[in-house]
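Replying to the earlier thread about multi-chain prediction with a worked example.

Input:
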Amino acid sequence: KNQVEQSPQSLIILEGKNCTLQCNYTVSPFSNLRWYKQDTGRGPVSLTIMTFSENTKSNGRYTATLDADTKQSSLHITASQLSDSASYICVVSGRGGSYIPTFGRGTSLIVHP
Amino acid sequence: DSGVTQTPKHLITATGQRVTLRCSPRSGDLSVYWYQQSLDQGLQFLIQYYNGEERAKGNILERFSAQQFPDLHSELNLSSLELGDSALYFCASSVDSTMLAGGPQTQYFGPGTRLLVL
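Result:
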């Protein structure tokens, strides 16, 4: 069964600090991995999309990395801001019979002033 | 604002009832996706339509059905509602149908409909 595990479940950091969120998956064969940011009560917003051949993708202060060999991805947030407080969701899609996206449960990030 | 609209924003109903959720995709997007997000299950893909035709099916119950109309708006019908159907229901859209096949197209989510079944 395809699975996506995210860690930590929740994280509290001070404004201006950096943090890294982890995503491990078992989806195979792999097609793409997406990171979404979801503010409370709102729809997810796409941050990055990475395919098999990409090992890093940036979107402003967000940088995602992918290691397809170890089936791991990370999302690094630099110089955090209060507006970064949200849930960050990792989504992995496979190829062929595994094309239905598998969602992680998300990491809840709180940025304190 | 993603450009995807969903109505209603909130819906309260009783067990056994039937409701219809509506979604209008971004201008120019042909694919519509429905997702369910509950506290205990997280986000789950339900179903995808592309230009009026069903393209992919996920964990959608038989009590649920969806369709996409010629003007590309979509409706998700939930019937014989149970307490466990209480959740946020999101609609998303993308330009074409290749996202689920690994295409790089960005998927845009609507604000969701919060359904409470009492």
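The first strand of chain B starts at residue 5 and ends at 7.

Feel free to reuse this layout for your own posts.
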